[in-house]
Design a protein that fits this description.
There is one protein chain. The chain has 276 residues and is of the alpha/beta class. It folds into 2 domains: 185 residues, Crotonobetainyl-coa:carnitine coa-transferase, domain 1 (Rossmann fold, 3-Layer(aba) Sandwich), CATH 3.40.50; 71 residues, formyl-coa transferase, domain 3 (2-Layer Sandwich), CATH 3.30.1540.10. The chain has 14 helices and 9 strands. Strand 1, helix 1 and strand 2 form a beta-alpha-beta unit. Helix 1 packs across helix 8, helix 7 packs across helix 9 and helix 8 packs across helix 9. The two termini are 31 Å apart.
Length: 276
């Protein structure tokens, strides 16, 4: 369902969080115009396939916002837009008169979603996903790098939620406002399962429970998530193992390929998935 049909979004955000958020809004029916600098979005140069996926439902324009012609083109889009997404530091926005007070005077119906690295008073500090994860305690076993862009992607989801809150507030009150989303806060929201021990090496979801773990098979690996007692009871009954122990499960799962155990899980209604 295109629940945001009729909503016009302008995005000046490049790299990952902004484009992912804009793509999510477009998927819900919003009309999204993405304004890129003359050099383009760095994501295009790093991962063109992902860039193409995210930009597929958007109109992409390259404008020099420091030039009169480029700024005039941007303003024409902002005049009819409902939401502006930015991902620049406040000082950069102020130099281009894209800070919310300046925008609100000219476009009183325009809401603004500001994606920042850090919340005020540190909103001028530079950063990227790696430093946000480091600040949130999400990097383990250094120098091993993070396995995915947790802060950026969580930040994108928070940006979508923030955008919807802005639009709903304007719908209810008639007031267009601005909402910041700090990526370091998004990263911090992912930390409690680790910092509170749930997913640590000895935590219940970190390998301490035999029914919730990763096991080697004859030809690969499977993830077993028999967390609830009823799932574990099925595992024990069908494998003839009471109680199910980590060592016992390791021995059994090694005897068959991953596809066999996936089919076994579906047959007995047990969550089992091969590692792709």
């Amino acid at each position: 369902m295109r629940m945001l049909a009729g909503i016009e979004v302008v995005s000046l955000a490049v790299n990952v969080p902004g484009p992912v958020a804009a793509a999510r809004l477009a998927a819900h029916g919003a009309t999204v115009t993405k304004i890129e600098p003359p050099s383009g979005d760095p994501l295009f140069h790093h991962v063109p396939a992902w860039y193409a996926q995210l930009a597929a439902a958007q109109t992409v324009l390259r404008l020099d916002l420091k030039a009169e012609e480029g700024r005039h083109a941007l303003d024409s889009h902002l005049a009819r837009a409902d939401l502006l997404i930015t991902a620049s530091r406040p000082s950069s926005l102020a130099r281009l008169h894209l800070d919310f007070p300046s925008l609100h005077r000219r476009f009183p119906r325009l809401c603004q979603l500001q994606i920042l690295g850090f919340p005020p008073p540190d909103d001028e500090l530079p950063g990227h996903d790696l430093t946000f994860q480091a600040a949130a305690g999400l990097i383990h076993d250094p120098p091993r790098m993070p396995f995915t862009l947790l802060a950026d992607l969580m930040g994108a989801e928070r940006a979508v939620a923030g955008a919807l809150a802005l639009l709903l507030h304007r719908e209810r009150t008639g007031e267009a406002t601005c909402r910041p989303v700090a990526l370091v806060d998004a990263a911090a929201a992912l930390a409690p399962p680790i910092t509170l021990g749930m997913c640590g090496p000895d935590g219940p979801l970190g390998g301490a429970l035999p029914g919730y773990a990763v096991y080697a098979t004859e030809d690969g690996w499977i993830a077993l998530a028999a967390l609830e007692p009823r799932f574990l009871a099925i595992v024990q009954e069908t494998l003839g193992m009471t109680p199910a122990t980590a060592e016992g499960l390791r021995q059994v799962f090694r005897t068959r390929p991953s596809a066999h155990w996936e089919a076994w899980g579906r047959q007995h209604d047990v969550p089992v998935t091969p590692l792709r």
